[in-house]
Amino acid sequence: MRDKLGLVIPTLNEEANIGTLLDRVRLNLDGAQIDYELLVVDDNSKDGTGAVVQECAKSDPRVRLLVRLGARGLAGAVIHGWNHTDANLLGVIDADLQHPPALLPALVTAVQEGQDIAIASRYSTGNGTPGWNPLRRVVSMAGTWTTLPLQKARIRVRDPLSGFFVMRRAVITGVHLQPEGFKLLLEILVRGNIRSAVEVPFHFGQRFGGKSKANLRVGLDYLVLLGRLSKSAITRSGAA
Fold it and tell me: Is the pLDDT of residue 126 over 80?
């Protein structure tokens, strides 16, 4: 069976970015020789995000718009998109152009060549966050360090909080993922059916347009996730 990628792009008021992102993603995936569809999962944006996507979809049926009503949260949006595609390879990329679409072929190739999951990593080869102020970098690194006891000993990665990755669908088959929060990759690394992982380095860019969705709620959701995954890690150790 020929591989197919279902790439989810979660959006909330990303009118300034989504058209450019779709153009860049298609340009890079068209050269990767893989079937694909782009699932823009929008949490009922109040700007023109949906209209931009619908206009693009008129000329390219591989672009699909899925609107969630009364729902919020990146993880839930990504899961919603994955549940609406028959692709055997699943991926996610942010809509703000901080993730470089040019990296997609490398992520896809890594999975096609045998990896269960390929992660775009800010930290695999040093500092991939140019332009960040020192405080933001320290907070990010501290958040990453807290995940080390939770990750599987033989599959530890340096950027488990990345929001840009491609994996085999089998990784999450039978795994109930929590829709709350923003750090879906960490839960997949802790609870998923993963035997191998690779990190592909990249430099985290500046937001192209619009406003960041980071706020206090995001931080609180992350703490809740750590608590929940700690229980999973303890259960896993007890069963080993």
Answer: no
CA proximity to 92, closest of 79, 111, 83, 109: 79
In angstroms, the Cα distances linking 76 to 115, 177, 181, 184, 226 are: 25, 9, 8, 9, 17
Amino acid at 204: F
List the domain boundaries for the chain.
4-239
Q: How many CB atoms lie within 10 A of CB 219?
A: 13
* Whether domain 4-239 has CATH 3.90.550.10: yes
d(CA 48, CA 8): 19
Q: Is 180 helix (H, G, I), strand (E, B) or coil?
A: coil
In this prediction the pTM is 0.82
Could you tell me which of 204, 196, 210, 57 has the C-alpha nearest to residue 127?
204
Separation between Cα atoms, residue 75 and residue 72, nearest integer Å: 9
CA distance 145 to 143: 6
Coil, strand, or helix at residue 117?
A: strand
CA nearest neighbour of 85 among 194, 3, 26? 3
Segment 6-48, tens digit of pLDDT: 999 999 999 999 999 999 999 999 988 899 999 999 999 999 9
Tokens 């998923």 — which residue? Answer: 192
Residue 142: burial class (beta carbons within 10 Å; 0-12, 13-18, 19+): exposed
